[in-house]
Amino acid sequence: MNSKPNVIYLTVDAVRADRTTMFGYERDTTPNLARLADDGLLLSNCHSLGPVTQMALIQLLTSTRPLSFGGYDNGAIGRPATIFRAFKDAGYHTYSLSTLHWVNRFFGYDDGVDNEFQLFSVITLPGVAFAMMRGTLRAYETGDIDADEAYRHLEPVLRNLFTNLVKYFENHEAQLPELEKYFADSAMMNSGYDHQKLLSIARRHEAELNAEGFGYVEKYLLPAPQGDEWMNRWLPKEWYYARHKSKLMSEFIHRASNKILRAFNPSLADARSKRFKIYTDAPSAIDRSIDIIRDSAASGEPFFLWSHFLDTHLPYVSGRGRTWYKETPAYLEALGYDPNIPPALAFKAKPENDTEAAGFSALYDAALRATDEHIGRVVDAVEQLGLADNTIIAVSGDHGEALGEHGHTGHFFRFNRVATHVPCVIRAPGVDSRNIGAFSCIMDIPATLADMAGIGRPEGWEGTNVGALGDGTRDSLLFESFYAGNCLFEHRPIYFAVRTHTHFLIWREAIDPSDKDAPARCELYDLAQDPQEQNNIYRDDHPALRPMEEVIARRMEEIPEIPAARIKKAFPWYADAQLSGTA
């Protein structure tokens, strides 16, 4: 057996800790994670320092904070070495099964990856580009920046998109036999796009960009799209019918038959119309992962494998492949829910009444139970292959999820506990089972895995080995982000939050113009009296406030894009204390 421990690192989207078995939830949503926790470390006070996946995966894969190294716009680019690089340099064969458009070579996450599988549809790439440009487009529309500055931010995103589309198509064609074997039921494989037509359209757009400069932006990208409007704009609009004729015909037949079905069974028709999930599901990603584990066991070469699962992200889909909706009732029933809840209900994105809200919650639990079931298959495979004594298994959520709390469904730049508190379980050879109740964060996981495997940590990693955390090691956690859009430090207000054992502070430098539902610029909650964070007790002279604000001020000092004058404006008392040497 290889002396170096294998590492299997699985991350799950939008999993809040209080909906899992390990945290005493009334429904047994995660029996397999609980099994891992019984034999390993349970990080019971673990948080994501950024409330959305783009920021979370930076922490999980580069052990750095969201606003370090120029912000989160470019993923791993410009940051310390990825966890893949750390393990590759230590002699591991590394695998990345990315179901997620934010984590791939386009954002520097191929650093140190031997085998990268891009398991997302090409249509998501223009969506990512829009997300990266949204803040700049809005800043231009509001007059905060002029056309020249806007174009300086927008042009690199557009040029990278056109370059990366070519690379995506090349990679897809090279891996086509394998993609057809494992992922035949995914939207990625069933969209029917004619890649040559898509590429031709993209090249025409690139030529227009070269010729028109900012005029191209005005023609295609303004006004800035709201919500999912980007799906009917720009490249996605022109790509819509750039599909193989056989796909167009089969889709026509399917829609015609579904229209007839809707007259008799509208719930089934709704689910059937969503038969191809927008992401690659956990069952198929786990199938491929298990075969990688099996092949690696036969070769004897140490391996590092990472994959991410999106089944627990809206629209909360449980079940395998194109007939997933046939499995959903069984998952609901196993958790004590009505199996007749419409399986495609959460495709609405937001419930319209209390009955629908309860249905969303039930479907979330069902998706979590289904994902846990397939994670259990990985654990079983490791044990059946005789690898358990030489394999580290880590499973973590990337951020939480609101299910009606604070008036929200989903996750969107909020720092409340439901949005940041995640389950994290690590089982490693020779590591005794224990509950680590100290403050920890997902940025700590790479450092912990590197230390457990006995490899060096790359320079610049900001996380800590959780095994070294005592109850008093951290007295607070600091959270950070902008509100949606990209990191325009000079033109956009920054959002911070600080969580201590007694209080929780949300501090907004100002309310971003695009943030339409922030309840106040600042919020303070007494966690002993108000653990659900419902009663805002913020006032300027609250005795708990000053130490928490100092945490924010010190963090602002660490970020080179934030000038001293900006910190002084936010916290004049802190600047005065710095001058007097009392801070």
Give a quick summary of the entry:
The chain has 583 residues and is of the alpha/beta class. The chain has 3 domains: 10-119 and 276-470, Alkaline Phosphatase, subunit A; 120-182 and 194-242, no CATH class; 477-580, Arylsulfatase, C-terminal domain, CATH 3.30.1120. The protein has helices at 31-38, 53-62, 83-89, 124-141, 147-174, 176-182, 187-190, 195-212, 214-220, 234-239, 245-262, 266-273, 282-299, 328-334, 354-384, 417-420, 444-453, 545-558, 564-570, 572-580, and strands spanning 6-12, 41-43, 46-47, 93-98, 115-118, 303-309, 391-397, 402-403, 409-410, 424-427, 434-436, 440-441, 476-481, 495-500, 503-508, 522-526.
Can you characterise this structure?
With 583 residues, the protein is an alpha/beta fold. The protein has three domains: 305 residues, Alkaline Phosphatase, subunit A (3-Layer(aba) Sandwich), CATH 3.40.720.10; 112 residues, no CATH class; 104 residues, Arylsulfatase, C-terminal domain (2-Layer Sandwich), CATH 3.30.1120. 41% of the residues lie in helices and 12% in strands. The chain has an eight-stranded mixed sheet with strand order 5-4-6-1-7-10-2-11, with helices on both faces. A four-stranded antiparallel sheet has the order 13-14-15-16, with helices on one face. Strand 14 and strand 15 form a beta hairpin. Helix 1 crosses helix 15 and helix 11 runs antiparallel to helix 12.
